[in-house]
Amino acid sequence: MTAPRDDSRLAEVRAGAPARWHDLETAQALAALGSDAAVGLAPEQAERRLAEYGENVIQRGETVSWLALLAAQFRSVPVYLLLGAAALSLGVGLLPGREPQYTEALLIVVLVLANAGFGFFQDFRAERAMEALRELSTPEATVIRGGERTRLPATRLVPGDVILLEEGDRVPADARVLAAQSLETVEAALTGESGKLAKESTPVPEDISLAERTSMVFMNTDVVRGRGKALVVATGMRSEVGAIAREIQRPDARHTPFQDEVDRLGRRLGFAAGLVIVVVAAATWWLTAAGPVTTLMLAITLAVAVVPEGLPAIVTLALAIGARKLSTQRALVRRLAVVESLGSIDVIVTDKTGTLTENRMTVRRLWFAGAVYEVAQAGDGMELRRDGEPVEPARVAPLLRCGAIANDAELGGADGRGPSGDPTEVALRVVAERLGVRPEVERLHEVAFSSERKRMTVVVAGEPRRAFMKGAPETLLQRCNRVLVDGEARPLDEATRAELTRSIEAFAEDALRVLACSYKEVAEHELADEAALESNHVFLGLQGMLDPPRPEVRAAVEDCRAAGIRVIMLTGDNAVTARAIAAQLGFESARAATGKDVDALPDAALADLLAATDVFARVSPSHKLKLLRTLQAQGHRVAMTGDGVNDAPALRHADVGVAMGQRGTDVAKEAADMVLQDDDFVTLRDAIAQGRGTFDNIQKFVAFLLSANVGEVLIVLVGVILGSALFPDAFAGQPEALVLTPVMLLWVNVVTDGLPALALGVDPRVPGIMKRRPRPRGRGVLDRRVAAYAVGIGVALTAAGLPVFFTTLGAGHGLARAQTQLFSLLVLGELTVLQVIRAGFGQRALSNLWLLAAVAVSLALQLAVLYTPLAQAFGLVRLDGAAWTPVLLALAALVAVTAVLGQLIEGARGPAAPAARETAARPGQTTGPEVERARV
């Protein structure tokens, strides 16, 4: 029954005041918010409060509106230069004997607007794509609504909700602790205190500091041990972290390292272009009769044409599109630059359970009182057998009972909800349930499981009071001095220990994960002494469970090897089990190393061991971090998977930290760069392929941009120099005699750098992308081969275009026709070169329908300029069939030359990867005595 509401406290919550909840008894807090610890809020009551309080989110401060994005397009040096050029066109009318150039000024303004439109579209799409990614990454919370336990987005929590917290959760809202079992949190993000803080339901004094409020948990802090139940008292901006956010709100304008690299590239290209522009302007002034206004406008136009002001926006858009594609493939990227980083990964260090296997544990074999039993499926239930014959489950009831009691999993109920909890614990509950063992006990005390302890202990009421412990066999055997045989606790002698060791190895050789169970009678004074509680136990037996490998993983591991990516498997299982599973998955290592080996070896020997071993057993999070640092010290770029609280350091320091979406803790997800929503290794392989494809798209755009810019600058510069030498009368005698006018150059950039460049961002990855070596560390977007390729294409554009221009001029057809042919060739050439560049990266011509549509639109615009009254405004003439012949011949020659140059890009994309890693030791290879001793 819901407690009567305390309206004064609820009024404080509504007002957003920092209401005091830590000094209230749990019943008072529940009454204040009209909630119930067992039932929570009714769904309709929660919906009303959501409408009243709003979503549980920390506001990000200013958001970027479409109007601000549009205005930003006009705040750049190239735009200022163009508008200055338009003003010059009008101002020239003030000179004696000159008329204002209204048409040219209008065209410049129109082209500025067109460029701004393309820039706005790029930025708008990137911003919306990033917003969509933020929405996809919304965390979830476990809440009791209407008496039912459910998972829902944390944004929908309201004051009065009852939430459940477990190790690894990120606390979704400020909440009053109602119940706690070994509950500890880290609140460094809020209080600055990095240590663990124990939480309990007991009220604390009203005037105590925030860091000492042990009866409270706070939004965005982490649960690092135990579990608990809490009452939400403040959400969103009303929370403690929300109060801090109000003080420091500002737009997030951080750049990733990759974006910084792109910015540096843009600045370098701009600086180089500036030098060329000075040379072009000087040559034009010295070698032609062009006046100062024409020369200045030509220099301004080249500056606008060459400076890659759109490069950062295109890169951001390409990364956002890549991230969006990954999200449709069940891989959620939390930082855009990760899309690029994925393409250079050369080592994957992956957990076994759930990533390489199905994470669907089933108990298959038991050891109890010296006998081995098989657990077989029997219809919808299970059957216990010994030597192939059915036996009564009562024979092994103590073992099954222990596994079900030292357990936090839930089996679900008649409402259709299935089992929930850790898959290992679910397997123990299911086998006990289906073999008729259903212990109903009162839990008095718990010592929670952790990756370091590798065990869990639960004390239950009764006469006598007993503690049940489950965990790794070697850990429990150290804490047992007796064994249960025929209902009696007998001394655990060396012969029995040896028999148990043989059974553990036999279970493991059949790829079974092995857990041991034990118990002891507990005296009152031992409840507060963890060491005493977990010593002198009676050994009950072993439970062996199978987690079958995912059928598609073996092929995915082979794909990674074909891509030059080494895969290393980590597991908490013993070495024998790890070796058996690894063999099924196709791992090369004939042996497995253990966490103890990692601890014992010095750095040099550990590096040798890593070079020879792909399988590591009995590892803990600290071992993960040590292995990661060793690999990175060798120059590798490492993707590391993890799911637990203590995996966070390794995930944070990995080149790409990968958390599990289904079984991963909130802390792991927050530390990671990417979340696999299906926990599947195949998804990680596909994400790496997508990362390589996205980087290819960025390189294609840079190569295209640079080749076009080089071609335009060279055409103007070389054209002026050769024109003044070959046709001195034409170039020295006419003030407006130029190879290409400023308006023509602006138009070329609009139709080629606009829609086609945008469409490059959605190019699909090429089929053979996972046959290359990973990109070496330090190789940027514009490496030597790509730069040489782009410059070569620019030179080819110049070599194809200028002969057409000068041949027409020499034949006496006039400057206008020569400019029109060169102008048309430049547009067609750049659009054709775009496809040649794609082919150089292994891309099929018809693989991107968006690009084909963009090229078609650009061609239609070009024809409109040539064959409508717009031609006069651009200073063009209509081209007949004969005039098109030299243009098309030059275009064919350009395609042939650039196709040959395309061979250069093969090295930039990376050679084919070796079939297996070159650094690995082969079977039988000597790796040194220290390493051999370390291998199991």
UniProtKB/TrEMBL annotation:
<dbReference type="InterPro" id="IPR059000">
    <property type="entry name" value="ATPase_P-type_domA"/>
</dbReference>
<keyword id="KW-0067">ATP-binding</keyword>
<feature type="compositionally biased region" description="Low complexity">
    <location>
        <begin position="915"/>
        <end position="924"/>
    </location>
</feature>
<dbReference type="InterPro" id="IPR023299">
    <property type="entry name" value="ATPase_P-typ_cyto_dom_N"/>
</dbReference>
<dbReference type="Pfam" id="PF00122">
    <property type="entry name" value="E1-E2_ATPase"/>
</dbReference>
<dbReference type="InterPro" id="IPR004014">
    <property type="entry name" value="ATPase_P-typ_cation-transptr_N"/>
</dbReference>
<dbReference type="InterPro" id="IPR001757">
    <property type="entry name" value="P_typ_ATPase"/>
</dbReference>
<feature type="transmembrane region" description="Helical">
    <location>
        <begin position="102"/>
        <end position="121"/>
    </location>
</feature>
<dbReference type="Pfam" id="PF13246">
    <property type="entry name" value="Cation_ATPase"/>
</dbReference>
<feature type="transmembrane region" description="Helical">
    <location>
        <begin position="77"/>
        <end position="96"/>
    </location>
</feature>
<feature type="transmembrane region" description="Helical">
    <location>
        <begin position="269"/>
        <end position="287"/>
    </location>
</feature>
<dbReference type="InterPro" id="IPR008250">
    <property type="entry name" value="ATPase_P-typ_transduc_dom_A_sf"/>
</dbReference>
<keyword id="KW-0472">Membrane</keyword>
<dbReference type="InterPro" id="IPR018303">
    <property type="entry name" value="ATPase_P-typ_P_site"/>
</dbReference>
<feature type="transmembrane region" description="Helical">
    <location>
        <begin position="746"/>
        <end position="766"/>
    </location>
</feature>
<feature type="transmembrane region" description="Helical">
    <location>
        <begin position="701"/>
        <end position="726"/>
    </location>
</feature>
<keyword id="KW-1133">Transmembrane helix</keyword>
<dbReference type="InterPro" id="IPR023298">
    <property type="entry name" value="ATPase_P-typ_TM_dom_sf"/>
</dbReference>
<feature type="transmembrane region" description="Helical">
    <location>
        <begin position="818"/>
        <end position="837"/>
    </location>
</feature>
<keyword id="KW-0547">Nucleotide-binding</keyword>
<dbReference type="Pfam" id="PF08282">
    <property type="entry name" value="Hydrolase_3"/>
</dbReference>
<feature type="region of interest" description="Disordered">
    <location>
        <begin position="915"/>
        <end position="936"/>
    </location>
</feature>
<keyword id="KW-1278">Translocase</keyword>
<dbReference type="InterPro" id="IPR006068">
    <property type="entry name" value="ATPase_P-typ_cation-transptr_C"/>
</dbReference>
<feature type="transmembrane region" description="Helical">
    <location>
        <begin position="293"/>
        <end position="321"/>
    </location>
</feature>
<feature type="transmembrane region" description="Helical">
    <location>
        <begin position="786"/>
        <end position="806"/>
    </location>
</feature>
<keyword id="KW-0812">Transmembrane</keyword>
<dbReference type="InterPro" id="IPR023214">
    <property type="entry name" value="HAD_sf"/>
</dbReference>
<feature type="transmembrane region" description="Helical">
    <location>
        <begin position="882"/>
        <end position="901"/>
    </location>
</feature>
<protein>
    <submittedName>
        <fullName>Cation-transporting P-type ATPase</fullName>
    </submittedName>
</protein>
<dbReference type="Pfam" id="PF00689">
    <property type="entry name" value="Cation_ATPase_C"/>
</dbReference>
<feature type="transmembrane region" description="Helical">
    <location>
        <begin position="849"/>
        <end position="870"/>
    </location>
</feature>
<feature type="domain" description="Cation-transporting P-type ATPase N-terminal">
    <location>
        <begin position="20"/>
        <end position="94"/>
    </location>
</feature>
<dbReference type="InterPro" id="IPR036412">
    <property type="entry name" value="HAD-like_sf"/>
</dbReference>
<dbReference type="Pfam" id="PF00690">
    <property type="entry name" value="Cation_ATPase_N"/>
</dbReference>
<dbReference type="InterPro" id="IPR044492">
    <property type="entry name" value="P_typ_ATPase_HD_dom"/>
</dbReference>
